[in-house]
Structures are given as C-alpha cells and as structure tokens.
Amino acid sequence: MNDILVESIKSFLAEVNVVINGLLSGLIVTGLWPEKEVPLLASILEGLSGICFSLGVSLIVLKFLKKGFDVYILQTDGDAEADPLGLLVNFTRALAIAIGFPTLYKWMADATEETINAMLAVENMSLASMVTDAYMGIDSLLKASLNLIFMVMLIMLAYQMIKRGLEIYVLRIGVPIACVGLIENDRGAFKAYSQKFFQSMFAVIVQIVLLKVGLLLMATATGDLVADILQLLFAIAVLGLAFGMPKLLAEFTTNMSGGGGGLNTVYSGARMAQMAKGLFKR
Predict the structure, then answer these.
(1) pTM, entire model
(2) Which of 189, 172, 210 is nearest to 59 (CA)?
(3) What's the pLDDT score for residue 164?
C-alpha cells in the first residue's frame, strides 16, 4: 500500500514538475517585469500608464503654482520670507523623477536581476533541475509526503511572487502621481509610496534566494532517511520564512527610504543592489 502511495505521489510530482519548471524559469522576470511574461497585461495597462503620467505631471505643475501663489502672493501657507529656490528645487525634483523614473527603474531592475543571478550562481544548478532531482530521490511515504508539502508551498510562493511583481508594476505606473508629494518639504505621500516600492523590490530578491536555498536542501539527498527528512523539514521551514519576508523587510526598507529625497532614494537602492552584486561575485 505504501509503495502505491509513494508511486502515486511521485507521478503527481512529475506532472506538477512541468508547471513548476515553467514558473521557476521566468521567476526573476515575473517579479521585476511581469508585462514581459504576459504581453496582454502590458497592452491592457499601457493606456493607464500614459494617463497616470499625464495626470501626474499636470498635478505637479498645478501643485507648484498653487504652492507658490499661496506662500508668496496670498501668504496663507508656509513662510513668505523663505527662499523660493527651495520650492523650485522641489518642483524640479518631482518632475525629474516623474519623467525619468522608467530609466531609473530599468537601471535598478537590471542591477537587481544581476544580483539575484550572482546569488543563484553559487551552486551550478538551475532552479528547474533541482525540482526534478528532488522528486526522483523519493523512496519512502514520509519523504513523499514532505515533498508534496514542499511542492504545494513552492507553488504558493511562486503565486505570491507573481502577485508581488504585479504590485511593483502597479506602483511603477503610479509613480508620477506620487511625485506630487515631492513639492512639499516632507515629501508628502511619496515617502510612504517609496517605502512600499522598495519593500516589494527587496522582497523579490530575498524570496528568490530563499527559494533556491529550500530547493538545495530538498534536492540534496544524503541517503540516510533521518538526515533526508531533517533536510526536508528545514527546506519547508525556509519556504515558510520566505512567505514572511515582506513583513520582516518592511522595517528595514522604511529606514532606508526615510531621507535624502525621492531621487536619492531611487539612486541609493540601485547602488545597494550594485554593491551586493559585486560582493557575491568575489
């Protein structure tokens, strides 16, 4: 009976493996550029992106004019004796980020992708091949059950990362509107917006790396039943940790994006990704 259950689970995992391979092969692109994986999505939201950009730039100009009028003409807001150069700098910064964000994001996404690839290159095994190696070594019902649990969690994590990629995509579209807050000295809504953006970006990096660690633990069998089961339990725990990473990273991304202005925030994130890439290449 046990042999029948083991073979049934192995057959099921073999079928699921085809789907898993497809998900893992494009997981990095899905997290950073979901529109490249689903062109229909890009065609649907392309018009919305243009509308948000036009609306954002218009609101930035209107906000700048209203702020200047209220402060220096009506003298009902802020300090009328303050240097108007500060308001002009805020206006220029808001426009620069709204207009240049696609280029800035491409630099940051490229650096992020290279960082992830450098981390994954520590072991010369692709994510997809690890999945195949993992279910091929099943020789007991307990191991089969743990492999099944791991695969279900893997699919759920892949779904979460697809959702995370869509979240980043929506945030990218809304950046021009969020830049309106940069007219204010406290950066307005842009501060919280940038915190959420970087939280999602770093979550993609950490979750993919933890997924690789979990697959390594799962696919590397020792031949000893107790040791293999322990590794499977650790692999499941690693995936469980990956699920909670976005909340754990929220505190650190909040501190990271807390100062230095909007453009500085984006640049700092790209530089950190570049530094991490260099570290893992050594």
Answers:
(1) 0.74
(2) 189
(3) 87
